[in-house]
Amino acid sequence: MIGEDLQRETLDLLRRLIACPSLSGREQGVADILKRYLAENGFSTLEIDRYGDLVAGVAGTRPGVRLLFDGHMDTVPADNAGDWTTPPFEPVIRDGKLYGRGTSDMKGADAAFAVAAAQYLRERGRDFAGELWFAGVVQEECFEGVCAKEVAKRVRPDLVVIGEASEGNLKLSQRGRAEIVLETFGVPCHSANPEKGVNAAAHMCALIDEILKLPPTKDPRMVGDGILVLTDIKSAPYPGASVVPHYCRATFDRRLLVGETRESVLKPIQAIIDRQKELDPTLNARVSYPMGSAVCSTGETVEAERFFAPWWFAPDERTQRVKAAMEARGLTPKITGYSFCTNGSYYAGEAGIPTFGFGPSRENLAHTVDEHIALTDLYDAVDGYLAILHAVLD
Q1: Which one-letter DSSP state was computed for residue 172?
Q2: Verdict on whether the full-model pTM lies above 0.85
Q3: Is 70 a catalytic residue?
């Protein structure tokens, strides 16, 4: 484990990050904290791009790999602060754990990597091969990989490390994510005479009943199946007292496996719509991916279709070298994959850039009441990032 000085440095930086709320689109305060720290610790390039991403880098004296650490700066809200045992933006240590919104997802990793990078530069100066880059990315909670594309255009990385929680393991794959919208269109009428109209909600129920029978897709290389989960249903008008609804919309969360495309994911749902229409010609339905948009702290609008790609890489010589370097420091990483979605959707899933994940804490602590990180996990992550830096850049 790292020494007490580095432990204090990491904890101090993380506390400052937690005390600065940074909802998606409001990450500027955290970007300023990280930018100042990196500027004071050897990074020579420090930029804020059009979306508000922090992009910081330093080049070694010898040619080599462009290594990019990706860590998003935004968090989900803590609107249920009354349910927390500690205030979500007042970092508190209890029983060897630091509590606060973003400790696990993922300011803990941001702080750990920043300190590891600072320590690496103290040890090596500029005597390393390649370039070391840090990206504090915005809007990840809403648009996995979309703002990361802007970072990749600037850095052109050869290797990306995703800092999302991995329990100290090396993650070489990730399920993708898609939002699917199913709409039905009817004809309104008085509910006392339902035969005069077409009930969009009833049609929706029939379609959902069939759609939820679809078997999940599978891939033994991936963690988790290609599941489809119904997340909401809305009809119009609402409330619908004495009115047959003329419109209904349902949203599904679909987790994606490698090889699945925009077209292949919608195809079985469209087939169900077509079969149901043969049984009931009054059915009018449409399935699609919605577009999402949000305003960034810079005033720029980010917009994207809600389809975020999966990815998988086979373990290679570099992976084994990184794993061995971690083990030499007393860590015990396993090679596995993420079940959730990350900014790797762009780097690996779309751009094909070699990518792996490594970060402190557990996936199931993200977005929770009393979110926390074990201090031992936090400090081990600094050790792990130092191992990665030496394995890749020395």
Answers
A1: E
A2: yes
A3: no
Bridge-based pairing of strands 372-374 and 97-99 is antiparallel
Task: Give the tokens for residue 268.
Answer: 């079985």
Please identify which of the residues 70, 74, 164, 380 carries the catalytic annotation: 74
Which residue has 């069939």 as its token pair?
A: 210
- Active-site residue, from 140, 141, 371, 383: 140
Stated as kind and residue range, the H or E segment containing 19 is none
In which residue are the tokens 């919309």 written? 249
**What whole-number distance in Å separates Cα of residue 282 and Cα of residue 170?**
52
- Rounded CA-CA distance 249/232 in Å is 8
Question: Does residue 73 contact residue 54 with C-beta atoms inside 8 Å?
Answer: yes
Per residue of the chain (394 residues), what is the pLDDT tens digit? 899 999 999 999 999 999 999 999 999 999 999 999 999 999 999 999 999 999 999 999 999 999 999 999 999 999 888 999 999 999 999 999 999 999 999 999 999 999 999 999 999 999 999 999 999 999 999 999 999 999 999 999 999 999 999 999 999 999 999 999 999 999 999 999 999 999 999 999 999 999 999 999 999 999 999 999 999 999 999 988 899 999 999 999 999 999 999 999 999 999 999 999 999 999 999 999 999 999 999 999 999 999 999 999 999 999 999 999 999 999 999 999 999 999 999 999 999 999 999 999 998 999 999 999 999 999 999 999 999 999 999 9
Catalytic-residue membership of 74: yes
Encoded tokens for 130: 């390649």
DSSP structure class, residue 148:
H
The conformational region for residue 313 under phi > 0 = left, psi -120 to 50 = alpha, else beta, is: beta
